[in-house]
């Protein structure tokens, strides 16, 4: 009982973190369309949260096609996969205990 509740709590927190990071990526992508001031603190925070992951992705696969960077879209799809797979797996594990 206690262990299954702990696993459910971990799954719920993981779901919230993945959702929050997905929204950070969406907001950063939308802001990048309007050429924001790079010295703005919000822009700097968004860049620090997204660029390390984009850098790792861009090193492994090409993400720019016809001048459009698809790295945010690829990361969002990966986050959605993690959310659907890991979170549901953890919830299923909690129910089986």
From TrEMBL:
Residues annotated as transmembrane: 12-34, 70-91
Pfam families: CCB3_YggT
Keywords: Membrane, Transmembrane, Transmembrane helix
Keyword match DNA-binding: no
Domain of life: Bacteria
One GO cellular component term: membrane
Family from the record: Belongs to the YggT family.
This protein's name: YggT family protein
Organism the protein comes from: Wolinella succinogenes (strain ATCC 29543 / DSM 1740 / CCUG 13145 / JCM 31913 / LMG 7466 / NCTC 11488 / FDC 602W)
